[in-house]
Design a protein that fits this description.
By secondary structure, the chain is an all-alpha fold. The chain folds into two domains: 69 residues, 434 Repressor (Amino-terminal Domain); 63 residues, no CATH class. The chain is 59% helix and 0% strand. The protein contains eight helices and no strands. It is elongated and about 50 Å long.
Length: 164
């Protein structure tokens, strides 16, 4: 099978598996709707920046889309729960910086995992463009619902709009 055709089918299947439309993928930082449409139709050669966007939006580990396109290797989904290990004591500055990069990637991974939920994506997409006051009201509603359903403790909840 032609690699472009296989890759286009792979991207389409993953997007459908996640319950995402082409617009949803673009909205969460993936390639534009037009680019994704061309990839899925096998009309578009894919570049490095697009591979990175596909990895992020489709919940694949870094480099997975490029490996799939270049070598025909199935992409590796990100772990839904990623807790980076603490760096050992006495490491160099560059090793500590690398740890923090990995920690940030864990946050991205956590966000990607949350965005796999259709409901989470729809709340995020429909909230985009609303005033800060409206976003605060939505956040308060979500926090109250989480409290009622006992999903987390109030002290553990990150604050989107810190009081100041």
């Amino acid at each position: 099978m032609d690699i472009r055709k296989w890759f286009g089918e792979l991207v389409h299947a993953r997007r459908r598996e996640l319950g995402m439309t082409q617009q949803d993928v673009a909205a969460v930082g993936g390639p534009s709707y037009a680019t994704l449409y061309k990839i899925e139709r096998t009309d578009e050669p894919v570049g490095l920046a697009t591979f990175k966007k596909l990895d992020s939006a489709l919940g694949w580990t870094s480099g997975s889309a490029a490996r799939a396109y270049g070598k025909g290797i199935d992409p590796i989904p990100t772990a839904s729960e990623s807790t980076p290990a603490q760096p050992p004591q006495g490491e160099s500055h560059s090793a500590t910086a690398a740890y923090h990069d990995d920690e940030a990637a864990g946050v991205d991974s956590e966000l990607a995992a949350a965005l796999r939920s259709h409901g989470v994506r729809m709340i995020a997409l429909r909230s985009d463009g609303l005033s800060e006051q409206s976003q605060r009201a939505i956040l308060e509603l979500v926090e109250r619902a989480r409290e009622i359903e006992r999903l987390d403790h109030a002290d553990d909840t990150p604050k989107l709009f810190p009081q100041g």
